[in-house]
Structures are given as C-alpha cells and as structure tokens.
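Reviewers of the previous submission asked for a worked example of the structure-prediction workflow described in the proposal, so we include one complete record here. The input consisted solely of the amino acid sequence. No template or homolog information was supplied to the procedure at any stage.
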Amino acid sequence: MNPSPQEEERPVPHESQILDAEAVRTWSSLALASLGRAREEIDAINVYPVADADTGTNLYLTAEAAAHEVEQACAHVAEGTAPLSLGEAVRAYARGALIGARGNSGTILAQLLRGIADVLAAPGETGPEAEGERLARALARSAESAYRAVAHPVEGTMLTVAAAAARAAGAVTGPPAAVARAAYEGAAAALEQTPGQLAVLGRAGVVDAGGCGLVAVLGALWQTLSGHEPAAAPVPGRHVPVPQHEEPCDGDGPGGPAYEVIYLLEASDEAVAGLRGRLDPLGDSLVVVGGDGLWNVHVHVDDPGAAVEAGVVAGRPHRIRITHFGDERRRAAAAAERDRRAVVAVCPGEGLAELCGEAGATTVLGRPAEPTAVEDLVDAIRRAHAREVVLLPNDADLRGAAAAAAERVRTDGVRVAVIPTRSAIQGLAALAVHDPDGSFDEDVVAMTSAAGATRYAELAYAERRSFTSAGICQAGDVLGLIDGDVAVIGAALPDTAEAVLARMLGSGGELVTLVLGPEVPPALATRLETYVRDSYLAVETVVYHGGRHSAPLLIGVE
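From that input alone, the workflow returned the following structure tokens.
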C-alpha cells in the first residue's frame, strides 16, 4: 500500500518550510487526498479492534471534517484584517476532527491533532531550528495525549506508530521539514513492526490499519513542509481474513460488544473523569477525546442505552450515533462485492433514462410535477453497489436533495461526489467523459469541467400569461429558456428552436445535442440539423429521443 500522494492534481506544498496557517491548510488538504487514495486498501486490512472494514473510511471522513473546518476558518477572515494565525488554523484543524471523528481510529486521530494544536498554538520562538524543536514537542504531546485518551492502550496500534513518530522527531535537530521527515520515517518503520506486536495482525498477515492511516497523515505533513513526495510505505503481507474459529485477541471478536456508540458531549473536565469510570465497565475500546468543554466519546458496548445515559449524567450528549456491528460486518461483506465506481443520474424522460443506462449509469426517472425525493436518490446510490459514486442531479432544484442523499450514504462508507448539473444535457456531457478506471478525483474534475462547458436550453409551452425576462408571454406561447432563463418567446416550436440555436451558437460551439420530446415529429430534428449545417461551419449535431415525461425539446451546445 502507498498512502503517500500519487501523481495527480493536488495542493501546492508549502515551500517556505515555515509553520504557519497556510502550511496547516496545505497539510489538511494533502492528508485528505492521501487518505482518500489509500481508503480502500486501509479498509481491506482492518482487523482490529473490529474486523468491519471501515478504518480507512472513518479516517477519511474525520480528515474531511477537519479540512473543511480549516477552509471555513480561512474563508471567514475579513478583508483588510490580519490573516489567520498558526494557532487559529491548527485549532480549527483539531476542532474539525473532534466534531467529525468517526470510529475508533478517527477519534484517536482527533486527539493526536489536538495534542499538536496545544503546542503549536502557544507562543514560541521563531527561526528554523526553534520551529523544528516546537514541532517535535507537538508530536510528543500528541502521542502522550492519545495514550491518555484511550482507557486501555494496546501496543501494535496507531498509538504505537504515533509514539515512534514522536521519538524519531525528538532525536532530530533542524527545521520543521527535517523533523517531519523523521516523524514520517519513524512511523513507517514502526508500522512494519505492528504484526509482531498484536497477535490478530500477525495471524491476518497485515499491519495495523489505523497506523497505516497515520503514516499517510504524517507523510502529508512532510510533503507540506519540504515539497518532497514521501516514498511508498510498504504493507507487509496481503489481507487474509482471520479464520472464523479463532477469536482476535484484545479486540471485539465473536462474543465481543455488539454496538459502537459515539457522541459529542458538552461537559466539564470533572464530569468527564466520572464518565470514564461509568463507561469503562460497560464494554471496551473506550476513547474520550477533546477538552475545553467539548468532547467526543467512543465506546463498544452491549447496552447502548446505558452508554448514552452515562453521557446525560455527565453533560449534554448530541450527534449520537449507535451502530450494530452485525450491520457493519454485513455492510463490509457487501462492500467487498461492490464495483469500484458508479454514476447515478436523474433523467427527466424514459428515453434519457434508457440512454444513460446504456452508458452504464444507474438512473432515477424524473417526472413532471413530481419532485425527486432524497429517498429516491439514496435508493439509487445503494442500488449502484459501488464504493465511489458520482451523482448527477441534472436539475438546479435538486442540488439540495442530492447533497442530503450524499451525506446520508456516506455513513455507509460510500464516497460520493455531487456534480452540480442543472440539466440533463449537462449530465450527458459529463457522462460522455466518465472514466471508471481513472482516479476518482480526476474523474470528478473531468466530468464537472465537461458539464460546465455545456450551455443548455429547454423549449416548453407557457401555461398562462406571465411576465418573463424576455417580455410578456401568453398561454400557449413557446418559451426558449437558455441556462435557466427565458430568452426567446415564439409562436411555433421550429422557429423558436432556431432562434434559440442562433443565440447559443453566436458565441461559438462545436457540438449541438438535440433531445426530442415524445410529441415532437422527427421532421423537426431534420430541420434543425439542416439549419446548423448550413449556418455554422464545423458544428456537428447529434439527436436523441427523450421519451415519455421529457420536455418538448432540449438543446445543448458544447
């Protein structure tokens, strides 16, 4: 496995080797990208503490929340005011991870980042060596705080990898880049030793999944400060499932706690100390991270109600997530059978749905006056049986529903990108460049670019007299909407269609797409093809039939 960044578009490393807010921002972006690329492989080697194939996904989602918080902090700096400080940026990074932590590994990562923030946010000396020493202290605090957060630390896990990184960093004198490199290399070396430290890893022939994710995060830190891409971190052995008749030692094997409980908790330090004592006897894998009144609580138990009740006694729990491990294991088994990537498209017409289906998309049929619901999109994404999904709403009014559906299925471990297509025409353009074998990020960028480069129009009949951006229309008039706004009002569909094409091709174009509705005669397509061929040189035209439920005419210009 190579959790380090690959050759693809990525944030530019922070070449100045200075620990500042921009370095934190770059680090958060590179760490997220690295975890995204390694997610599936980390999921595949996840056998401890529960073999539920979600460590990579949990680390990615935690890093995603952390990076988002950093971006929000940067965006909220008012113009003309001082830029974001290192302390503000690193605390935003840690807070985002705390709020968005998923699973055992994500919760520990949140505490590791908090330990780093506690040191880097405090005033300190400047200069390369002083900043390097400060980073080394931050990594040491990070490992110490993570060990304290776990009720019963186990060696051979990401805690061991964090401690090795801190020791290696502390043995180096130099600028931050040198310290980060030492930490990364120390962590990678410790990761290779984990199968010999934890029996369940040795039997499975894999390294610790959480530790592998931490190596990716530290590699991103080194790349940020040096501009150098880390070498591959090898993963000895291949994933071999633990035989069913064996029980993994030190973990939640068969007979272990049945539920994972996670919640955010607003409580005092004193109340949290009592909470640890109440939760510890209830189960295992207890991790409580945070501070300053806000905590993230993670525990595996058989009685989830008792775990939540303990939080109520301590303070105010919220964002409560309870997961049954039986569901998680079934979900992990289903994930192993999934295709790598799928496209889900909303299609306003049976002909369009058939066309997109032939291109490999999972489709949702859109019907006039029947808005597509969030549940319809969630169902389609799950029917796709893919680890990665590109969602094409094909309607500006569906962007909110698409975002909600994407958030819903991310809890299933599915990576979803919503491309904001506003028309089926833009969806067709995006689908035409879809590359299921390329990287997910590159595929999403290419599809988004293709959709954005496509102007779209729709011809429809006015239902009543009304005011439009092109003037007053009467009931029965033909409306030509370009990019969502009424641009042409006509009496007949053919003439109005030509007027719309003239406007759209006036600024250039290479390909015209026509999608005919069910009541439109084929002769209209012939007339419009002739109009384009005779009026515009080197412009091609393709024609599709939208089928039942589609608009009278859709036009696209690429």
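The two ends are 40 Å apart (CA to CA). We consider this example representative of the routine output the project will generate in years two and three.
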